[in-house]
């Protein structure tokens, strides 16, 4: 059995009294495209920075590809990272970025880098500071994939892009992962983007993991139930209520159930991925101690 690409146990990150991530325990299998979703300030960036070794945990542990994040050149070479602002050097040309990548990454694939630059029609002589936001994001992705990582980590790389640039970026990402079988963790608050590309999901809110698992399994175990008004406690055994709302005569529940729901008084419907994510995002979180406040 292969090791997971990421394993976190009780992972916590604090900045003084501010909590950025709390008791995060999860496993990311190999070969998945993982969608990491949550509102701003949920802890997504903190989790990803812990995964690449930019931060160290306050408590708990995290391993990536069997090693400690950032633990030396060999570990660093296994992971490609594109930060939220798709960092590039404004005064360097596209070709100079590729030369920089070749000199700093022992596993650099120059042919792959040049092929991607040609495919996305970037002028090698153009300075990065004169590129559009979508072009800079594509250049940053090229630098990340040309090091031929085993795991590609992307922190909201399309958040500032227009819909066409987002689509092109995600299309290029999927083409690369399909060809090279690279594991991917993609952070976003745009569920529609994740729905198109991801087969594994992690939902973070208020610095805590609310749900995680294979998308197909999650979609197959979550339902919308509607029927005459009733108390959630009166639902069939084995049903976990994620969200509920009521009118004077009707109740609607978003639930998780690992067994078939056999109740003729209820209408049972499948959810969309967006329905599922929104239900967990709106689910109340257990209160913290008053002196603690969430940080990004």
From TrEMBL:
Residues 6-231 form the ABC transporter domain. Coiled coil: none annotated. It comes from the Bacteria. CDD domains: ABC_DR_subfamily_A. One of its GO terms (molecular function) is ATP hydrolysis activity. Keywords: ATP-binding, Nucleotide-binding, Transport. Signal peptide: none annotated. SMART domains: AAA (SM00382). InterPro entries: AAA+_ATPase (IPR003593), ABC_transporter-like_ATP-bd (IPR003439), P-loop_NTPase (IPR027417). Belongs to the ABC transporter superfamily. This is ABC-2 type transport system ATP-binding protein.
